[in-house]
Recover the amino acids of this structure.
């Protein structure tokens, strides 16, 4: 029995092949781009707005609020990266209830790529608020002997990000497939609903951990909230 989307080969030619992981990853990216284009093409500042714009504003403001609470800085620099991570993983997990759809997050290659993006984003954002010397100095604090442990810590948390998401999504797919064989109707529907809930939680946890890792290397600054500017 096949569970990982890497095992479902759609097209194969010579040394290359198109599997379900690549196919549905491209499909998700196209869906996100098209959806964002359709929702944002008629944005309005009026009181009465469309339900899609309302949903978009709730989603963006919610993510921005979480980022501001974690980093204690303005969320705008981090919102595109963290928001994209969250939406991609969320859409991938929610679409898992669609028949014949194989979520890319059930592939270790996809979750490893997402974790690698976080691994690269941490020093990029860190160096945007700190000097190179200040950033590298944290690896030898409080003593030089902590250098290998801090490096191993960065690598291990990246591995943990990839394996955690992969394991949770894959286990949900396996359980759903087994239950579909045993109880063909009612129980798989309940499990699909539960899978959508856990998929949303997994997307939130991944984005949250990514933001925590980024915040840990930022220079501490208080966010410039509108309420604070008014009081000044």
């Amino acid at each position: 029995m096949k569970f990982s989307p890497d095992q479902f080969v759609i097209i194969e030619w010579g040394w290359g092949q198109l599997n379900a992981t690549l196919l549905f990853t491209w499909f998700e990216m196209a869906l996100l781009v098209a959806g964002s284009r359709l929702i944002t093409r008629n944005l309005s500042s009026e009181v009465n707005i469309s339900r899609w714009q309302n949903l978009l504003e709730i989603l963006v403001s919610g993510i921005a609020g979480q980022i501001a609470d974690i980093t204690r800085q303005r969320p705008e620099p981090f919102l595109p990266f963290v928001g994209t991570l969250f939406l991609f993983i969320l859409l991938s997990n929610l679409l898992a209830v669609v028949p014949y759809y194989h979520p890319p997050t059930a592939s270790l290659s996809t979750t490893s790529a997402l974790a690698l993006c976080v691994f690269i984003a941490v020093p990029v954002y860190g160096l945007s608020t700190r000097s190179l010397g200040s950033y590298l100095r944290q690896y030898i604090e409080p003593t030089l002997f902590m250098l290998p442990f801090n490096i191993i810590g960065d690598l291990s948390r990246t591995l943990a990000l990839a394996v955690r998401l992969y394991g949770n999504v894959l286990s949900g797919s396996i359980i759903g497939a087994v239950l579909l064989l045993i109880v063909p109707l009612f129980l798989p529907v309940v499990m699909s609903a539960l899978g959508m809930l856990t998929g949303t939680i997994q997307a939130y946890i991944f984005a949250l951990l990514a933001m925590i890792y980024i915040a840990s290397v930022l220079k501490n600054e208080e966010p410039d909230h509108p309420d604070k500017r008014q009081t000044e």
Q: What stands out?
A: Confidence is low (pLDDT under 50) at residues 226-232. Residues 20-223 form one domain.
